[in-house]
Amino acid sequence: MRLLEEKISNNGKVLSDNVLKVDSFLNHQIDPKLMLEIGKEFASIFAGEGITKIVTIESSGIAPAVMAGLQMNIPVIFARKRKSLTLVDELLTATVHSFTKNETNEISISNKYVNESDRVLIIDDFLANGEAALGLVKIVQQSGAQVAGIGIVIEKSFQHGAQKLKDLGFRVESLARISSLSKGKVTFINEKVEEMI
Amino acid sequence: MRLLEEKISNNGKVLSDNVLKVDSFLNHQIDPKLMLEIGKEFASIFAGEGITKIVTIESSGIAPAVMAGLQMNIPVIFARKRKSLTLVDELLTATVHSFTKNETNEISISNKYVNESDRVLIIDDFLANGEAALGLVKIVQQSGAQVAGIGIVIEKSFQHGAQKLKDLGFRVESLARISSLSKGKVTFINEKVEEMI
User: What confidence tens digit (pLDDT) does each residue in B40-53 have?
Assistant: First the structure.
């Protein structure tokens, strides 16, 4: 998605060979118009999949997921990293380790909002080692629903998450795919061929 | 806002005299179309205030805030309850106690995204004792920006937050104002007069 790649090139900050900071438009300050375009792109990519629900994870997945839900006219459920006082239903849970943050969270959603009749699109802001996405997959599968696809805003393709998820048979679609952050520079996987089709 | 009050009446669950559960459309499962209408309503209410930024708090404030930001064509910044690895700028912080969750968090935003030239709209999902909103006010004021208003999705008017904030001179606008949750029933403050104007 060219608009997103431009935004990353112009406003992203490379903090190390592994860490890209996009706090100015995605995960601290949010650019709502960019989120709307991201939502439209996900809606377009997954249009044929019969998706009935979107599942994401707090906090940075919420804005792109809600815009996708708006475009697709379906509800969005966000998994929590901490238990809520008012979340008293039976919970579907998974354990997720974040290598970037070096912490392990139990993530959960209520079993009321996803069930075996659903085809679920999982959306998240980043895909690196795939831990968060795999946690969301586990939760969705516990509910009996099908994972219809995984939509990622920014994929760090030099890490193994995307391949791991594809090897498990999931459709993974990332709007920006980064092949390298080395030497302080963002390099994208060239998608010119795809864009010309 | 009648649409919101209907949604609360039809889908909210009263867990106690103090706790209203709106997990089916606001703070776990999210109804994106309702969020868009909420965003439109905030944009309309605060149209004359010259607002340049919206500040909210993770996680449940994000969806309504982003929809308001979309309508007002301005950026949204969400305060974090936990420190982010990539949030390495100087932080503006405040301590917030949640009576509902019985926990105290240090909330923070980067000082890069709000400054003395800004007029800030604070948005949050709930207003009860006003702790979260007051924390956001403190953060915004530390930056030198002005608080132009406080927009709340659901106000528990039988608690003291709204009055506290108004007494401090802030414009507080809540889209649904609940006067009581007693006997398992949601009672709204009657706004028919306002709606007829």
Answer: 999 999 999 999 99
The continuous run of DSSP H or E covering B9 comes out as helix B2-11
- In order of A27, A51, A152, B98, the CA distances from A61 in angstroms are 8, 18, 9, 24
Range of the domain at A51: 2-196
Note whether A70 contacts B110, CB cutoff 8 Å.
Answer: no
Distance of CA B196 to the CA centre of its chain: 25
CATH number assigned to the domain comprising residue B51: 3.40.50.2020
Q: How far is CA A179 from CA A13, A21, A26, A45, A171, in A?
A: 15, 16, 20, 21, 19
Q: Which of B21, B62, B84 sits opposite A62 (nearest CB)?
A: B62
- Overall domain count for chain A: 1
User: What is this structure's pTM?
Assistant: 0.94
Contact A29 B77 (CB under 8 A): yes
Over residues A11-35, the pLDDT tens digits come to: 999 999 999 999 999 999 999 999 9
Distance from CA of B19 to the nearest CA of A (A): 8
Which pairs with CB-CB distance under 8 Å and at least 24 residues apart come from B12-16?
B12/B186, B14/B181, B14/B184, B14/B185, B14/B186, B15/A86, B15/A88, B16/B181
Percentage, residues of chain A above pLDDT 90:
86
Is B66 in Cβ contact with A30 (below 8 Å)? yes
What is the H or E stretch that residue B129 is in? Answer: none
Distance CA B62, CA B57 (A): 7
Best B13, B30, B100, B181 residue to mutate vs chain A (most A CBs within 10 Å): B30
| A–B interface: beta-carbon pairs under 8 A | 128
Helices (H), strands (E): how many in chain B?
6, 11
